[in-house]
Automatic annotation (TrEMBL), chain A:
Pfam families referenced in this protein's UniProt entry, alphabetically: SoxZ
Occurrences of domain Sulphur oxidation protein SoxZ (ranges): 9-101
InterPro entries xref list: Ig-like_fold (IPR013783), Ig_E-set (IPR014756), SoxZ (IPR030995), SoxZ_dom (IPR014880)
Protein name: Thiosulfate oxidation carrier complex protein SoxZ
From TrEMBL, chain B:
Record InterPro entries: SoxY, SoxY_sf, Sulphur_oxidation_SoxY, TAT_signal
Gene3D superfamilies, A to Z: SoxY domain
Signal peptide as annotated in the record: 1-28
UniProt name for this protein: Thiosulfate oxidation carrier protein SoxY
Pfam families: SoxY (PF13501)
PROSITE patterns: TAT
Residue ranges occupied by any Ig-like SoxY domain in the UniProt entry: 41-147
Keywords of the record: Signal
Species: Roseibium aestuarii
Length: 108, 149
């Protein structure tokens, strides 16, 4: 699916050692596998099951998701930045697709 | 019409079976919630406090219920929160999400949006790097369930 557009909000700059908040949202139906279509058949489960945030190659936050996470999964978390660098965000779909976003931050 | 002894016995037995079966269905969800907690804490019984859940008291739409969790921890390299498990005990499948923090997280706080099938308890279990576990529960009243028909 080409419409799984990730949106990430990271401050452009931060002070050294500051704890910043990061907000992420990705378009995804998060089909729970509980829902039935009009014909009464179960719609097969298809969700994003894992989210990872890396800073300069080091994992800082991950989240395992189950079908109870809402459609267009939203995540807000914090990271302490000691140096300038780049954040890499990865979402893993049940079907094996991987969606990525990259953001850089300056540190004063 | 008179009811024979045989008919009476049959009806009672049938009612007893239904009565015995119904609470078991409700118990199944609660049991799997406890099992999920135990699997997460590796058998330790979590204590109240330290972790706190931020949920609305009433959720009009069970499809997107904002949930926040924060853990009181210095988040240093040798004292930090490893993971926080979020459960909803009234959902068909109680697991919701698991957050994994690191010492680089700064503060152990995360927010997301979840689905709730009906009015129920949302549970957060936090596991520290030294293995101690903490728990918090909040009831959320749901007006429209979020599991689709």
């Amino acid at each position: 699916m080409a419409d799984n557009k990730p949106r990430v909000k990271v401050p452009k700059k931060a002070a050294k050692g500051e704890v910043i908040a990061i907000k992420t949202l990705i378009s995804h139906p998060m089909e729970s596998g509980q829902r039935k279509d009009k014909a009464g058949n179960l719609v097969p489960r298809q969700i994003i099951n894992k989210f990872t945030c890396e800073f300069n190659g080091q994992v800082v936050f991950t989240c395992d998701m189950d079908p109870a996470v809402s459609a267009n999964p939203y995540l807000e978390f914090n990271v302490r930045v000691d140096e300038p660098g780049t954040f890499k965000f990865t979402w893993v779909d049940d079907d094996g697709s991987i969606y990525e976003a990259v953001n850089s931050i300056a540190v004063e | 019409m008179t009811i024979t002894r045989r008919q009476m016995l049959g009806a009672t037995a049938g009612a007893a079976v239904t009565l015995a079966f119904l609470p078991r269905l409700a118990l199944a969800a609660a049991q799997s919630t406890d099992e999920a907690i135990m699997a997460f804490t590796k058998g330790a019984t979590p204590t109240e406090g330290t972790v706190s859940l931020d949920t609305p008291e009433i959720a009009e739409n069970g499809n997107t219920v904002p949930v926040g969790v924060s853990v009181d921890s210095p988040m240093t390299a040798d004292n930090y929160v490893e993971s926080v498990l979020i459960l909803a005990d009234g959902n068909p499948n109680p697991a919701v999400a698991t957050f994994h923090f690191t010492a680089l997280s700064g503060v152990a706080e995360a927010k997301t949006r979840i689905r709730l099938a009906k009015t129920q308890n949302v549970i957060a279990v936090a596991r520290m790097n030294d293995g101690s576990v903490f728990i918090d529960r909040k009831e959320v009243k749901v007006t429209i369930g979020g599991c689709g028909g």
